[in-house]
Amino acid sequence: MEIKNNDKCMNELANLIDLFHNPMLTNEQKDLYKKYFHLLVQENDLYNLTAITQPEKIASHHLEDSLAILSFLDLKTIHGFVDVGSGAGFPGIPIKIYAPDVPMVLIEVSTKKIAFLEKVVYELNLKNVLIYPHDWRTFLRKTKFDGTVFLSRASLHPKELLRMFQPNSFYQNALLVYYASDKWRPTKEEENYIDKRVTYMIENKIRTFVFFKNSKKEI
Fold it and tell me: N or C, fewer C-beta in 10 Å, the chain?
C-alpha cells in the first residue's frame, strides 16, 4: 500500500516520536526511531512492509505497542531476545534500539523483508543483531542461541509456538511472550503453559501479553 505525502508523514511521525512519553529514551534513541520509521515509510511499496499508513497509527501500533512489553520485563535478567516472525522488525528493532546491549535474533523467512531488515540494521548501525532466514521449526531444530525471551506479535499461532517447550528443544526453559488482543482465548493445551496474562492499552484498546512457560520442566 502506498503511503501518500511521505514528507508530511515523516514530519508528523518525527513530532509524535519527540512527544513519545518515556523518560528513559535518549535523544539519540529518538533519532534512531525516526530514521527507522523513515526507512519504513520510504521503502513500504518496495518491500510490502505495513498496511498501517497513518503517522499516529504507525507511532502507536508499531512503536508504542512494541515497547509496551518492557514495562513487564527486567532487562537486567535477559540474556537475549528472539523475535519470531519479525516482518518489518516489530517488536525486535524498537526493543533493540531501547536496549542496545541485549542481543537480538530476528526470525524472518520473506526475502523482501529480510532485505529490509538488513538495510535497517546497517543504516542504524545496530550491533549484535542476527537475522535468521529460515522457518520456526528449523530454528528450533538447528540453533542454540542464548535467547531467554521469545517475542511473537501474532506472527504464528500459539500452538505452533509452543513447540519450543518440547523435551528435546534447546529453548524449553525460555519465556515466550505472545502479543494478543483482549478477545484471544487459549485452547486447553495452551492454557497449561500460561504463566500469567497482563493487559495494556494502545489507543484506548485493551491488549494482552500472554506469558508462556514450560509447565513440565523439572524444578
Answer: C
